[in-house]
Amino acid sequence: AFERRMNHARTFETELVDAGTLLVKFWIHALREELAERLGREGKNGKKRGKPDWQAEERDWRVYEHYERAMVEAQRYLEATGSARTPWTIVGSQDRRRRDMTVAQTLLAA
Question: What is the per-residue pLDDT for 59?
């Protein structure tokens, strides 16, 4: 199933680029500690406490609970779907300003 999904993603992205589409891919990476902090602001019941900039979903809790495995799978995904024509830009999410500047600079250079 994984290989089938990755082949589909690679084919789709290649078709986009072949058709002249500018494809820019970002992976916004959150450290486990940052994810814990964000989820702690949400609360296990999913209701916002404070004013977080995102809404936690059940998938976020699963990633947190199985963080190491999720990162191995993420690495597999990035390797399987990245290429010279469709590269990933990996951006840390710890520093909001640095994250936003990296995304903006990458888009301007594309």
Answer: 85
- C-alpha distances out from residue 66 to 25, 49, 60, 73, Å: 24, 24, 10, 11
Count CB atoms within 10 A of the CB of residue 63.
19
- In three-state form (DSSP H/G/I as H, E/B as E, the rest C), the secondary structure along 1-52 is CHHHHHHHHHHHHHHHHHCCCCCCEEEEECCHHHHHHHHHHHCCCCCCCCCC
Question: Which residues fall within 8 angstroms of residue 36, CB to CB, at 6 or more apart?
Answer: 64
Name which of 4-8, 14-18, 43-47 the model is least confident about.
43-47
Of 17 and 39, the structure prediction assigns the larger pLDDT to 17
pTM, two decimals, is: 0.78
Q: What is the DSSP string of 60-74?
A: HHHHHHTHHHHHHHH
